[in-house]
Amino acid sequence: MQGKTKILFRNLRDYINALISRKQSALIFGPRQVGKTTLVKNSLKSINNIDIVDCFFQNPEIRLNYEKDPALLIRQLKASKTHKLVFIDEAQKVPQIFDAVQYLIDENIASFIITGSSARKLKRKGGNLLPGRVKSFRLTPLLFNEMGWLKSEKSQILKIKNINPLQKYSFKKSMVFGSLPYIVNLKTDKDRVDFLRAYSHIYLEEEIRAEALSRKMGAFSRFIELAAQESGTSPNFSKLSMESGVSAPAVKEFYNILEDTLVIERVDPYLKNARKRIFSSPKYYFFDLGVRNSIARFPLAQELVNSQKGILFEHAIMLEIINRIRALNLDYKVCYWRTSSGAEVDCVIDTGGEVIPVEIKSSSKVSKRDAKGLFSFLKDYSNVAKKGFIITQGDKPEVIADNVTAIPWDYL
User: Fold this and answer.
1) Is 310 part of a structural domain of the chain?
2) How far apart, in whole angstroms, are the C-alpha atoms of residue 297 and residue 293?
3) b/e map of 279-303 (b: 16 or more CB within 10 Å)?
4) CATH number, domain at 75?
5) What is d(CA 386, CA 156) in angstroms, rounded to the nearest whole number?
6) What mean pLDDT do residues 140-157 have?
7) Count H helices, E strands: the chain?
């Protein structure tokens, strides 16, 4: 299952490099295999005149030393007379270390680059998340500009530039196998299938057992398969409870675990000053389509795009919008909108001042009929929403109405 490893630039790289150069600290969260360790290691390679200390908590021997004695890090760094840059990988495995980290930052003894995949475990064990001392980031699977897929820098929604050459790995493949860096670098689809099956197994075995749910493993396995199949919808907890054989409260707990371990993205309904009754249940999207398809036990082949074209396309665009907002370091909120009368908009971007409704259609051609939800939203929220967009699989942008523009996915 070996692919030729190709180092791809990431949007977070410049932020991390700038923090390192200023001797500031960063906390980088993200699910397994999104490239957190690779990002940090590549940034550290370019650093000169700074002493670097590595703490890889994946190594059981290193982890055990600091679990037994978190103050060990303080004593080790105090022994040095120079300011250190410490890289702590998989910090959620030793959450006790954060008190030592806070002391070392406050005393200006060291700065830190810290990675982790579960804020839940840190909070549950009383981990100090270093408010005001550390800049937090979220690393995700590869974005369109990290794949070199974007054809235009003139997007009217979330402007971003390609930072890598065009990858041979296609958008259509990403809807089946996802966009984890390792997946993109693999040579064959068989290797991709093998990796995703192993990833799903490792996640269940390691992450969920680490969340102290080993006695619920069977129930959680049934639940997560159903949750993956329902990804992109507002799940019916009662239905999921009956189908998975666990209580409705347990279903809610399991969704919270998926959210806290960064496996799903929660998208809430847009609720501001609506004149119509709005459904209030959130939607959930798995963080990566390949992981979602594997856990759902869907066939990992291009035929899946034919049978679930609309679902997969919407999922991919929603993840791109959510993750691009993070990459651009914008304080925007992503919602959806649906009324009891059936009006619906897939994505609503709330910038704080302006609200931008976005409909997602997997077809290459769209018309005013496809913009009904947008027109309804723009009418109801005319005070904050001035224009709407339809994301398509077409070739060129086109004006559908004075306040609605259709944009191909690779012009987003």
Assistant:
1) yes
2) 6
3) eeebbbbbbbbbbbbbbbebebeee
4) 3.40.50.300
5) 13
6) 86
7) 17, 13
Contact 110, 4 (CB under 8 A): no
Q: How far is CA 31 from CA 26, 258, 298, in A?
A: 17, 10, 21
The residues facing 136 across adjacent strands are 27
Mean pLDDT of 359-372: 93
Q: Work out how many domains the chain is built from and give that number.
A: 2
293: in domain:
yes
Tell me whether residue 262 is exposed, middle or buried, using C-beta atoms within 10 angstroms of its C-beta: 0 to 12, 13 to 18, 19 or more: buried
Nearest-5° angle of CA 144, CA 257, CA 344?
55
Q: Does residue 148 sit within a domain? A: no
d(CA 284, CA 344): 16
CA distance 338 to 325: 22
Q: Which residue has tokens 């969704």?
A: 255
Give the global pTM: 0.91
Give me the pLDDT at residue 156, please: 66
Distance separating alpha carbons of residues 270 and 282, to the nearest angstrom: 10
In a domain, 200, yes or no: yes
Of 118, 138, 158, which closes a domain?
138
Categorize the per-residue pLDDT at 39 as very low, low, confident or very high, splitting at 50, 70 and 90.
very high
Domain of residue 40, residue span: 13-138
Nearest-5° Cα angle at 174, 169 to 178: 120
